[in-house]
Amino acid sequence: MPTGLPTAVPTAAPTAVPTTASTTASTTASTTASTTAPGVAADARALRAELGQAVTRLHAAERRRTGIRRRLWRELAAAQPGLARPAADCAPGRRSRSPHPARSGWVAPTSDYWLSAGYAAPGGHWRHRHTGQDFAVPRGTPVHAVGPGTVVLVSCGDGFGNQVVLRHRDGYFTQYAHLSRIDVRPGQRVAAGQYLAASGATGNATGPHLHFEVRVTPYLGSAVPPLPWLRRHGVRL
């Protein structure tokens, strides 16, 4: 009698049993994730607190520097009464309509001038050497922005007298000093050729002229030769 073929008996698939190594790795990853997030948050809070303290110290140092500068200037002005002659209408923030419409392209800072003291010129009027280019013009001559920019400083009463500083798109700054009046305010955007102020002889000046300076920062001590810089912007004096 023929026998039947053997019947296959299904067997259950082996169940994966977690090993000690995989269990340890999983536990370590979970522990690391749970402890890293609070650690990062704590570090961020500490950095923010440190940054806030640094900003506070910086502001305090700037206030001290400003106070010392003003006190020294008052003492200097008292010793040399003719040194500082701030204009009566120096206060910033007053707008006026420009008598010269803004033009496209870069321009000279004033007109009807003759060039007097140049950059790096020696002389007894400066602490070291001259840091800008002087334009000899009559008092009240219009002063224009040489290019588009933003007013970052309007101040009165130091050696530069009444002055305006602009920041330009290429990262450079231009200064216009010894002004008799100022008609722009900090934060105001100006176009190339826009009227800023009128020339004068305020501050440490022997006569009416415009002191024009180009800087890599807004501050004294960072000046570069102004005439080559103007030529790079298409302005030839």
TrEMBL record:
UniProt cross-references to Pfam families, sorted A to Z: Peptidase_M23
Which stretches does the entry tag as region Disordered?
Answer: 1-37, 83-105
- This protein is called M23 family metallopeptidase
GO MF annotations in UniProt = metalloendopeptidase activity
Domain M23ase beta-sheet core, by residue range, is 129-216
